[in-house]
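Kindly review both lines to help learners:
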Amino acid sequence: MKQTILTVAENRQLAENTFRMRLCGDVSAMAAPGQFIDLRLPGLYLRRPISVSDWDDGSLTILYKVVGRGTAQLRGMDPGDTADVLVGLGNGFDAAPAGDAPLLVGGGIGAAPLYRLARELRAQGRRVAVALGFNTAGDCFYEDEFRALGCTVAVATADGSRGVRGFVTDVLPERCSYFFACGPGPMLRAVSRRIAAPGQLSLEERMGCGFGACMGCTCKTAAGHKRICKDGPVLRKEEIVWDD
């Protein structure tokens, strides 16, 4: 983890209420797909955690959906604006056990951190399938970007306006050897129960500090409660205990 000042280089709309922001500066603390940043915003007591979609030597990219005061402030930031940011938080995905043909499952804005993972898996020569779930066609994003990496992509929308009508579980392949998923809790639970193969889940949770000091974001596991911000946000499927 590193605290630094990053400068906005781009902040543009991708889909309905969904935006992409590129921040420039020292992002050397980024080490694995699935890690996140924590931004300090004026007038708000808590920082806002946002998954990192991609990064290079001098910048990182986040995708965010406007749902509250914090993300509304992000939408209002212009190129040249700066932010105090904690970079390289969380453990991220471990690509080692992915096998030759992993499946990536994203629900809504949860698709964002899967982009960097897909890019790294494709660079390793693996065949990557991506399943994306959204509410409507207007919410869809990065379908073309995943395809441009060489991934096969299936899309489901709740209203049927794009792809298959239904949930992301309705476009999962019959079989896969390993999967990675990110999205809201009910989706992750459904995917975990639907897919027999092992996998890794990136959990979304409200956070206080973002680095494990406050114990404000915990998840029940077979080994006791774990902190999503510090021990996660990525946990192995088999260690999570779901509350029914």
Notes: The first helix runs from residue 69 to 75. Residues 39 and 85 are 5 Å apart (CA to CA).
